[in-house]
Known about the structure:
The structure is a single chain. This protein has 173 residues and is mainly beta. It folds into 2 domains: 3-80, PRC-barrel domain (SH3 type barrels, Roll); 96-166, Roll (SH3 type barrels). Helix content is 6%, strand content 42%. The protein is built from 2 helices and 14 strands; from the N terminus they run αββββββββββαββββ. Strands 5-6-1-2-3-4-7 form a 7-stranded mixed beta sheet, with no helix packed on it. The longest helix is centred in the C-terminal third of the chain and has 7 residues, at 130-136.
Amino acid sequence: xxxxxxxxxxxxxxxxxxxxxxxxxxxxxxxxxxxxxxxxxxxxxxxxxxxxxxxxxxxxxxxxxxxxxxxxxxxxxxxxxxxxxxxxxxxxxxxxxxxxxxxxxxxxxxxxxxxxxxxxxxxxxxxxxxxxxxxxxxxxxxxxxxxxxxxxxxxxxxxxxxxxxxxxxxxxx
Length: 173
């Protein structure tokens, strides 16, 4: 599953069947695990976000994210959220992807994780730009422990461009 597909999904409390909010973004750890979801609703003047930690998510699918109860929603200090998928200074989306020997292989357009592996990130979807995406399609870089997020780029091992695979959902099929 891709994180981009989950943005905007409704979040429901299983106990009461109440909609709690919508997924705004994802918190990601330094070791490439999904820590939880950030919900829509942060006030411009508030230093807090409403968030649900991954262990409080009981299920998720293409239509909704289910949490165990309303107590799973927590206030998180914005300054304590270091890495996110789509928003803020620490976002992964749109970062350049560079090999440690200086080869630019594209930009992050999405992040993949596997239902069966829980919150473990399994790969990055790489874009070379709009025209290239249309002609060649986006590519998928399987995750390895050597992939690191820097301040301005995702650093990958040398020869990672040789490990790129076509994505299943690419623009050209």
